[in-house]
Design goal:
The protein folds into two domains: 28-113, 3-Layer(aba) Sandwich (Rossmann fold); 139-263, NAD(P)-binding Rossmann-like Domain (Rossmann fold, 3-Layer(aba) Sandwich), CATH 3.40.50. Helix content is 41%, strand content 15%. The strands form three sheets. A six-stranded parallel beta sheet has the order 1-11-8-7-5-6. It has helices spanning 7-27, 43-58, 74-86, 105-110, 123-131, 139-150, 170-179, 194-198, 244-247, 261-282, and strands spanning 3-4, 33-39, 62-68, 92-95, 159-163, 183-187, 203-206, 224-227, 231-232, 238-239, 253-254. With 287 residues, it is of the alpha/beta class. The radius of gyration is 19 Å and the shape is globular. The protein binds NADPH dihydro-nicotinamide-adenine-dinucleotide phosphate (NDP). Residues 140, 163-166, 168-170, 187-191, 194, 207-210, 213, 228-230, 261-262, 265 line the site of NADPH dihydro-nicotinamide-adenine-dinucleotide phosphate (NDP). NADPH dihydro-nicotinamide-adenine-dinucleotide phosphate (NDP) binds at residues 140, 163-166, 168-170, 187-191, 194, 207-210, 213, 228-230, 261-262, 265.
């Protein structure tokens, strides 16, 4: 029977560390503020933004939401990004995705200054990660590394297989695993014989966005399995990319859905806001 990678417990630890760091910064006269740009009324986005606001308040981070109708122009958003980049009261900010059709997220995200890029998704942040320069790390991959580390799972020298190569999860996770000295294989929709490749893994991370795609045939006995996927299940609850009941008896560790990677992703956003505030407080003043 596998041990559970409890994302709720690890996220609570991260939040408590963040709260004490926020308090210390406040004592030094450095308030932490996290801003969000929210465009349109997509219900999932509206829900995510209010939960991120609640998370921030809980740890003492001030949060502001800049709301726009779907018809807002690219230029207006670009101007706001520049304003937030320059505003010394803003520690970090992010654009809630997806944006309505007609708006180009990549060009907007590219304008976010790396020191405030709390989602860690700008091309500059991605490049800094790739060449080993300090940067704010994308929340989901960083949350996975933290979840593994906090459970004492050794990555150095291990065979890691990541299913998925998105800019959001798969690619930055591969970079972080390399940084941890794992031997990394990245799979995608054109990978030949996925089960055979996946069975090499000491650590298998599944971020394919395909409901319950991974089963016992993909998993080596004693592997650590991290399920990133989030889907609505038949009975209304959440399920992942992994068939939990089938994989759990074979794995040494497994992350559940819900309660695994999701809470860690949320906690790492708060961690990034504090890190951004600290970096800015410690940076040499311009001019
Ligand atoms: P994307 O759709 O952007 O990427 C999916 C990746 O999986 C692609 O690289 C794709 O390959 C690959 N893939 C798809 N089908 C297969 C297959 N049958 N075999 C092998 N590879 C496959 O998804 P994201 O990375 O954004 O998200 C992945 C999942 O994680 C989603 O369910 C999403 O909801 C969830 N998610 C969860 C988060 C959390 O906090 N828990 C945060 C972010 C995402 P190709 O490139 O060839 O198309």
């Amino acid at each position: 029977m596998a041990k559970i990678l409890d994302g709720k417990a690890a996220a609570a630890e991260v939040r408590s560390e963040v709260a004490s760091e926020v308090a210390k910064l406040k004592e030094r006269g450095v308030p932490v503020r996290l801003d969000v740009i929210l465009v349109g009324q997509d219900p999932a986005s509206v829900t995510y933004v209010s939960s991120k606001e609640r998370d921030s308040q809980e740890v003492g981070i001030e949060s502001r939401v800049h709301r726009f109708p779907s018809e807002v122009s690219q230029q207006e958003l670009a101007t706001l990004v520049e304003t937030l980049n320059e505003d010394v009261a803003v520690s970090g900010f992010f654009i809630q995705l997806p944006l309505p059709e007609g708006l180009d997220p990549v060009s907007l995200i590219s304008r976010i200054t790396p020191a405030k890029d709390v989602d860690g998704l700008s091309p500059e942040s991605a490049g800094r990660l790739a060449v080993g320069l300090p940067s704010l790390l994308p929340c989901t991959p960083h949350g996975i590394i933290q979840l593994l580390g906090r459970n004492g799972i050794e990555l150095s020298g291990s065979e890691a297989v990541v299913i998925g190569r998105s800019n959001l999860v798969g690619k930055p996770l591969a970079q972080l695993l390399l940084r941890e000295n794992a031997t990394v294989t990245v799979c995608h929709s054109r990978t030949r014989d996925l089960p055979e490749v996946a069975r090499r893994a000491d650590l298998l991370v599944v971020a394919a966005g395909q409901k319950e795609m991974v089963g016992a045939e993909h998993v080596k006995e004693g592997a650590v399995v991290v399920d990133v996927g989030i889907h609505r299940g038949e009975e209304g609850g959440l399920v992942g990319d992994v068939r939990f009941d089938e994989v759990e008896p074979k794995a040494a560790w497994i992350s559940p859905v819900p309660g695994g990677v999701g809470p860690m992703t949320r906690a790492m956003l708060l961690h990034n806001a504090v890190r951004a505030a600290r970096m800015q407080a410690e940076a040499p003043k311009r001019g």
